[in-house]
Amino acid sequence: MPQEPAHPPQALASTGISGLDNVLFGGLSAQHLYLVEGSPGTGKTTLALQFLLAGRDQGERGLYITLSETSEELAQVAQSHGWTLSGIEVYDLVSDEGLSEEAEQTILHPSEFELGETTRDVMQLVDKLKPHRVVFDSLSELRMLAQSPLRYRRQILALKRFFSQRGCTVLMLDDKSSGEGDQQLHSIAHGVIHLNQNAHDYGPDKRSLRVVKLRGVRFRSGDHDFDLDRGGIVVFPRLAAGEHHRDFDPRPLSTGNAAFDAMLGGGLTPGSNLLFAGPAGVGKSTTTISCAVAAIQRGQRVAYYLFDEGKHTLRQRSQALGLDIEPYLASGQLLLRSFDPAEVSPGQFAQAVRDAVEREGVKLVVIDSLNSYMQAMPGGQFLLLQMHELLAYLNQQGVITLIILSLHGTVGEIRTDIDLSYLSDAMVYYRYFESGGALRKAIAVIKSRTLPHETTIREFRLGQSGVEIGEPLTDFQGILAGAVHYAGRQALLGDGDILAPGV
Length: 503
Prior knowledge:
By secondary structure, this protein is α/β, with parallel strands linked by helices. The chain has helices spanning 18-23, 44-57, 71-80, 110-129, 139-146, 149-165, 258-264, 284-297, 311-320, 326-331, 346-358, 370-374, 383-396; strands spanning 12-13, 28-29, 33-37, 62-66, 88-92, 133-137, 169-174, 191-198, 206-214, 223-229, 232-236, 273-279, 301-306, 334-338, 362-368, 400-407, 426-435, 438-448, 457-463, 466-472, 476-477, 485-486. The protein has a nine-stranded mixed sheet with strand order 5-4-6-7-3-8-9-10-11, sandwiched between helices. A hairpin with a 7-residue loop joins strand 8 (191-198) and strand 9. The protein is elongated, with a radius of gyration of 30 Å. It starts with 11 loop residues before the first strand and ends in a 17-residue tail after the last strand.
């Protein structure tokens, strides 16, 4: 039986956007026609310019054919990003002469003449310049000239065949002005990239892209967040935890506090995550800082991501509790980064964590807090999926992840916005209780999938030496339920302290 001839692998054309090349597994197959669609303002022009600039850097000739923007406007867009279009040919199909009264046709219907004229102009220009990469901006004008879907489709097919014979890699931009139902180009184009812009009641718009189709090659499906700012588009590929795994030592590591280690059944397990849940001010962040300092002191790097408070506040509070983190920040052992939930997208945050783990060698990650991180999501229904993927990735990298979740309320009934307990490998629960006319704190390990943890409830407090954990509260009942009953004479932490006035 005769064998089919083997086809050589197609060359890939980089888009000039590293994150998009990652989504496309290297770039776009050369010498094909692609559709880039999205409403005005989503970043189509910027993407197209980065595509041409990447080709110019590789010694390829680029051509930008515009029916919607002038060459001056394109130059201004490039200048706003710090680019220059030297070496790229920009051609205005609609010139001043074409808009004059003398150029108007009175015998033929304008579309009958202008569509053919436009197509011929494009072909003549390509034959003259012989470009490797072409951008056609935009199809909405061509669609209006065609007047009918049949003529429009025929002209696109003619251009596709022409560009293919000339060996051009082509991006055609479409602003979706014809409505969501127009699928004319989806069946013609070799690939389709859709850009989306989500407007929210507060904060900046969040942008994402999706590769709708790509013939003959693999790509990363789903939505991928991207940022459009000075310097161009930065794409954050959707995190797929199953693609990442490394070998690591699973033996538990100390939290820096012997009593806390005992409660957890031996300490913190690499490749697992620990959720700290409790009301505001109970000591969740301080506990995580204590664990972070212990990790640094044994030679590991730590990344601490703040969504609630500022860096200065965290530094001051840590120093007041005897946990001075300034030397570790100066040495680079502690990476402290503050995020504004209204500004950051989930993909951007996931990429920051990946960079810290893969490039900086971070072994312990702190997310403070999950409540504010949730505000960065485009919709609450994505929170569990995003967090599940991120935690699965960190677990497979052998990273210890500490997550802080603030609960609503101080005493009595306490609730949370969302239940993430099933996603956590271990969970530490904090609670306020009253004893002897004073407000005290209790701590308990609710669950642990990796170690045989204690089931006791212990007293907890923050002192000048940091975290202090007392003996099990055997003489108290109902602490976790918020209805405490004291049935004994058990000594508590700080009972012998004598405080000066004002302290």
